From TrEMBL:
SUPFAM superfamilies in UniProt: FAD/NAD(P)-binding domain
The organism of origin for this protein: Furnarius figulus
Cofactors (names): FAD
Name of the encoding gene: Fmo1
Function: Broad spectrum monooxygenase that catalyzes the oxygenation of a wide variety of nitrogen- and sulfur-containing compounds including xenobiotics. Catalyzes the S-oxygenation of hypotaurine to produce taurine, an organic osmolyte involved in cell volume regulation as well as a variety of cytoprotective and developmental processes.
Protein name: Flavin-containing monooxygenase 1
């Protein structure tokens, strides 16, 4: 029996994977419906993520789908939150997940059973309608997300206590009407910050984004008009990125990021070019900077009654409203600190999933990671691995080995990304997916496919590393995986080619035909 905490993206995947492995999941969801982050509500609910109605996915539908359940071809390439929620509801219905979910039920506490050392069991206390109930579970999958507890470090902003205007965390934002005719300051330059700044600039008198670090800016529309992640996350590009010497890799990324526009000219260049930075996805910011709707400034030095002073800028800037886009804290209020300890928004977990010190590995945390790619197939892959660990079909290394790897990983992440906010949670999408897939025997072999299905091998290596690749073989094999891979560009182009004859197809495969075989041979020689 497995307790699943939360019925968002991770919780649905966890519940489905438990069923696939013959386990008995019970999913506890404190709200009245599934969807987690992607279920929009006009009012902010305590303990739940909150999003604004204009939110659109940052990853494309083909790269974001669960690996055995493609999006309908008529869905847009990047999904408004309502369409993504519709997909999740279809997924839950198709695999019969709702009957395993207990709605309006809050997990109050999860504690080790008295005989945990031998059984690995957990005492789980839940509350529904004011009544608490205690359960015993053989394993626990924590899928509660990390977008519920806003991080608002006001002590880092001198003078905020005397500021007479309005300020709030981005979690409270819903509509831009409150910015009408105002001078607005957005603190922080993540995806939410830029989204809110763009929306505010359409009605505000002036909008300023302040960032002490800068950021790389990507558009959803990438090279040749294709979705960014279908071009960026391929096996070939991942192989190149991860085998180049560090300085050369960083120089390549600098070059690629500045191809569309020079970030320095727009005030966006990351402050430490030697460190990797998570890109921000937005299609409008450069043009809004060019047209004067948005101004980029350095970090806040201090607030005054009705203005703000920036570092290295002597003059004050009048401000009416401040939106703090300062991220979220990670917490597990239902768990004891002895089970999972969070420091600097980071929990020391083996492969971002398992606590390293438990005598029995019967508790896993899903989704506590920031990949350069889609989170949905990644949490599904985590779930596939975790359920097989629970069943004893996959073994974890000794505690000492896991602890050593976690510490080394953290040190390497600091060197690449810098230790600020949740940078240590970032990871390379293809590498991480392949690693977990290899644990369960589901990683596709390009070499084997080259002999018996060369066209599929070419598509897998040079094309997008779509989630269907991890259903071609091994546990959870899906008969439709090959067809899903070969038709992924058709589903991508279908909703955009609305006045082109249906018989037209993507030019991407023809490119593979011309150069594919020779490049694959070279990659095999040097990469495998």
């Amino acid at each position: 029996r497995v307790a699943v905490v939360g019925a968002g993206v991770s919780g649905l995947a966890a519940t489905k994977c438990c069923l696939d492995e013959g386990l008995e999941p019970t999913c506890f969801e404190q709200s009245q419906d599934i969807g987690g982050l992607w279920r929009y509500t006009e009012h902010i609910e305590a303990g739940r993520p909150s999003l604004y109605p204009s939110v659109i996915s940052n990853t494309s539908k083909e790269m974001s789908s669960f690996s055995d359940f493609p999006y309908p071809e008529d869905f847009p390439v990047f999904l408004p939150n309502a369409r993504l929620l519709e997909y999740l509801r279809r997924y839950a219905e198709h695999f019969g997940l709702r009957e395993h979910i207990k709605f309006r039920t809050t997990v109050v506490s999860i504690r080790k059973h008295p005989d945990f050392a031998t059984t690995g069991q957990w005492n789980v206390v839940t509350e529904a309608d004011g009544t608490q109930v205690s359960h015993v579970f053989d394993a626990v999958m924590v899928c509660s997300g990390n977008f519920s507890e806003p991080s608002l470090p006001l002590h880092c902003f001198p003078g905020i206590e005397r500021f007479q205007g309005r300020y709030f965390h981005s979690r409270q934002y819903k509509h831009p009407d409150l910015f009408q005719g105002k001078h607005v300051l957005v603190v922080g330059m993540g995806n939410s910050g830029v989204d809110i700044a763009v929306e505010a600039s359409r009605v505000a008198s002036k909008v300023t984004i302040c960032t002490s670090r800068g950021a790389w800016l990507l558009s959803r529309v990438f090279e040749h008009g294709y979705p960014w992640d279908m071009v960026y996350n391929t096996r070939l590009t991942s192989l190149i990125r991860n085998n180049l010497p560090g300085p050369l890799a960083r120089a390549l990324i600098n070059y690629k990021m500045n191809q569309r526009f020079n970030h320095e000219n727009y005030g966006l260049q990351p402050d430490k070019s030697c460190l990797m930075r998570e890109p921000v996805l937005n299609d409008d910011l450069p043009s809004y900077i060019l047209t004067g709707r948005i101004t980029i400034k350095p970090g806040v030095k201090e607030f005054k009654e009705n203005s703000v002073v920036f570092h290295d800028y002597p003059e004050e800037e009048p401000i009416d409203i401040v939106v703090f886009c300062t991220g979220y804290s990670v917490s597990f209020p239902f768990l004891e600190e002895s089970v999972i300890k969070v420091e600097n928004k980071h929990a020391s977990l083996y492969k971002y999933v398992f606590p390293t010190h438990l005598q029995k590995h019967t508790l896993a945390v899903l989704g506590l990671i920031k990949p350069f790619g889609a989170i949905m197939p990644l949490t599904e892959m985590q779930s596939r691995w975790v359920t097989r660990v629970f069943k004893g079909l996959c073994q974890l290394p000794p505690q000492s080995v896991m602890k050593k790897e976690v510490n080394e990983k953290k040190k390497n992440q600091v060197q690449w990304f810098g230790l600020s906010f949740d940078e240590v949670l970032k990871t390379e999408w293809v590498v991480y997916m392949d690693m977990l897939a290899s644990f369960i025997g589901a990683k596709p072999s390009v070499l084997r496919l080259l002999c018996r299905d060369p066209w599929l091998a070419l598509t897998i290596f040079f094309g997008p590393c779509s989630p269907y690749q991890y259903r071609l073989g091994g546990p959870g094999h899906w008969e439709g995986a090959r067809q899903a891979i070969l038709t992924q560009w058709d589903r991508t182009l279908k909703p955009t080619r609305t006045r082109v004859p249906a018989g037209s197809s993507s030019s991407f495969p023809s490119l593979l035909t011309v150069v594919g075989f020779l490049l694959l041979l070279a990659a095999v020689i040097f990469g495998f």
